[in-house]
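Minutes, project check-in

Agenda point 3 was the complex the collaborators sent over. CS summarized: two entities, 874 residues total, and the question is how they sit relative to each other. Sequences were read into the notes so everyone works from the same version.
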Amino acid sequence: MLIHSAGQLLTISGSSQRGHALGDLGIIENGAVLIEDDLIVAVGPSDEMCAIYAGEETLDASGRVVMPGLVDPHTHAVWAGDRAAEFEMRIQGKTYLEIMLAGGGIASTVRKTRSASLDDLLAETRPRLRRMFAHGTTTAEVKSGYGLEIETEIKMLEAILALDAEGPIELAPTFLGAHAIPPEYKVHPHGYTDLICNEMLPAIKEWAVSRRQWAGDRSQSPTTNNQLTDLPFTDVFCETGAFSLEQSRQILETARDLGFPLKIHADEFDNLGGAALAAELGAVSADHLVVTSEEDITALGASSTVAVSLPCTPFGLAEGSYTPAKDFLDANCLLAIATDINPGTAWCESMQFTITLACRYLRLTPAQAIVAATLNAAAAIGRADRIGSLDPGKQADLLILDVPDYRHLGYRIGGNLVQTVIKKGIVYTLYPLPSNS
Amino acid sequence: MLIHSAGQLLTISGSSQRGHALGDLGIIENGAVLIEDDLIVAVGPSDEMCAIYAGEETLDASGRVVMPGLVDPHTHAVWAGDRAAEFEMRIQGKTYLEIMLAGGGIASTVRKTRSASLDDLLAETRPRLRRMFAHGTTTAEVKSGYGLEIETEIKMLEAILALDAEGPIELAPTFLGAHAIPPEYKVHPHGYTDLICNEMLPAIKEWAVSRRQWAGDRSQSPTTNNQLTDLPFTDVFCETGAFSLEQSRQILETARDLGFPLKIHADEFDNLGGAALAAELGAVSADHLVVTSEEDITALGASSTVAVSLPCTPFGLAEGSYTPAKDFLDANCLLAIATDINPGTAWCESMQFTITLACRYLRLTPAQAIVAATLNAAAAIGRADRIGSLDPGKQADLLILDVPDYRHLGYRIGGNLVQTVIKKGIVYTLYPLPSNS
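CS then shared the predicted structure for the full assembly.
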């Protein structure tokens, strides 16, 4: 199938974009993409492509923008229940303690996720993933972390695998047992770190190896979800009130030694040194990065670790502090953005809205934000070799936006510009406007 | 037709809500609404309603929220062209002057709107209105103001009437000849004020009276768009660099004497006294209100003028200052919110996103923001007697939201929670999730 755009074709061709090189969209005006099955076969100017591939079925995207599917590299999309009441309390000025005492906070999501069956969890999560897909996210990372005990953590990972198998959105799993200290360990939090290292990580590895449907058989297929590794990412929330730098190191080093690829939540509220730890350990990404120190930014810039900014979270909390993106670009970092969708601080299903925020509060240009949400986001989940750009050999994950210029991403606020999502070569038509039934 | 909700039915019954009385949703748990043709006939608990109206066709909204359609009382939705390039320049730190010199700013929209045909204008605006409708806006005010000369101003008003007639979204027209000083009057801006008063307003009145399709025939129908008045609103941008307080008074008093209902843009950047002028002249609304003085807030609170906050505009500009909503509630004001959709500062088609902002930056609770976006928004366009709540006799404009609790409006960020829009009794099903074509 030949997708022909008489508007802008954003190829974002080449390697992940570092520092101020961020924002090279590789635009072909009047470009076309040839897809065969689930892969991109050729990209080039429409007139040449149409001459070479004259017999192909054609999808006309005249006057529209064609670009790679959006990649959301940091989500907590699997959970049970909601925290709408807690949101209202927060707006009314209630303190964190008052919210806790009223049964709110992450503990409430942990309680509901523990008591949900796998089927409940799938039913609650499915509409979220569909809306993410409808807003143009073709691949997303999803974390466990509302179990904080082995059984529920594995139930969450099972949910991620099952939803990935359902599609159309493709999911990359992360084990985040170190999301918070569970209530039963409040009196001896070090015990929970030991539990993660001594029992949970080995059990997750054993479980992962046993899941042949994704660790084994599917790795033989060109559409496997796991060309990076057989194991999910291991992630730690390195923050005051969660895991200290020392505990984070203990967990991440144990995970690394077991063969897990690494991620970290760092510097959302306090600078504990998590970003430098990520760089030192060769983590795939370090995420949040609001109050990162200059040295830690420098360390990230000298590493292969992708810096992932999550602007929906300070927005969700109505806080004024965002990732100082310019400092990260000055330090030659690989910068990506993600929704951080979660039931507490940021129930946002739209990477388009994340781009809107990144332009305003990270001061990224639309072009920079788009690369941060595609190719660099793919790098943040270790998949830049397979998704994130329109290059021959990559997976056929594309969007057709109903706009004449890519800068409408960022410029426009709170809507959905996607007209068509193409995932692994399959065409999904979206956003049919109101129909009178 | 009986719409049955096993979840929350938000009636928002009663009069517009002043001061801290804002936020009374009149919730009926397990409520139902009976619609006949385009009107609401009865509202009550489902069990009673189902018993009384047993033979009626039923629409099941089990577990979902049913509420009045959203009303957007301040938009500039009709324009030609876009300003995506200007947005990028702004992000890159270019000054207002540099943007002007590059051909940007409101002058660029005026140029394109002047040169667009009526058909062009309809074709460019129609998708915006459809997306607004898809996000739950069942009625919107729309302003002229990109003509700044009589011919184009009337072309814009003709576009508003034509698009209103097309439906399904219902539009209330406003004449905003006093939006900016047109380039040809930069050397003698007072001359433009005189032109508005001496030539444009009389011409707009003559045109309006001649438009029997809305000023005459349709006023006989229960679904007329003009039960308020035969004339559109007259609005003035009272701001440094636009129209002074004295010029604003001259224009609004002339309009009032001709029988126009009044609106004003006041206190977006500078406090010139426009809000108190609105209160004094009995304007239907005063809009923006970011830097309003205490005296002016007090004057609004003692008047029937609705205070309309436009949080998408400071958000769009990434500015930190929003309407101090608490001060307006303390002063017993009627508070409403609107998108201010326009091609320069805030291309936002979603009143849902406006609610999301209002909760975070105006510190309204979800309940307060919802009333500000329905019943009080209807009052801000003089239509609270006909729309904005689910009361028998009002127009059958309703939404079914795919959420279990109304607080998901506000809590959730950047998506679309609407499942069904009912406009004048006609059911529109929305947001079918991705379909594989």
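Noted in discussion: Chain A has two domains: 2-69+389-429, 70-379.
Follow-up: revisit at the next meeting once the mutant set is ready.
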